[in-house]
Amino acid sequence: MAVRALIAGNWKMNTSLAEARSLAAGIAAQPSAAADLLLCPPAPWLQSVASEIGATGVMLGGQDCHPTSAGAHTGDISAEMLAEIGCSHVIVGHSERRTDHWESDAQVQAKADAALRAGLVAVICVGESEAERDAGRDLAVVGGQLAGSIPAAANANNTVIAYEPVWAIGTGRTPTVQDVAAMHDHMRTVIADKISDAAHVKLLYGGSVTPANAAELLAVANVNGALVGGASLQVEDFLAIAAAV
Question: Does some domain include residue 4?
Fold first, then answer.
């Protein structure tokens, strides 16, 4: 069975409310026939984006969640809250969360568990640093992150894996198609030890995907979609990436 591609837009801490509404409306007006589309706006804009995408089939996701369902956790958002306002997915373990907030694999796994508990799809992010890449530890590092971050209840229906080559962010270095293929092949092999239907789990590539390189990247074996950053903030660019599937 072929795995339907997923193109996810991670807006990070960007857009005003008006920009978020306009961006969501523009994407929802031209849903892709070739891929599933997922929008992950900043938390304050989630309900407004949900209103704009309506019943078009474009999906809504959070950028993070707390491991517990409720409690004294100022500033945090539970997976149950995300589900209640219409989210179907949540990103956990993004490289910026792992780096800026020192999140461990165990914390990422706890958040993924929370997502599954709430009925959300967990988009679990993994990726190696420049130092780890240069030391030849890239496969081992990503393999370890997968082993430590994927919850026991994960399956192809509730879990997506996104690979981000952290070493390429702001360094001027660009992964080759061969780099991407090698890592995605490795991830498919590793997750087979954690997920019974690993062959059907969506593996997304998340390293500076643009309309110019999307077709080449999405044609790589074991690349089942993309986690898009900057290009997801422009309607035309995001839809062009989806059209490249």
Answer: no
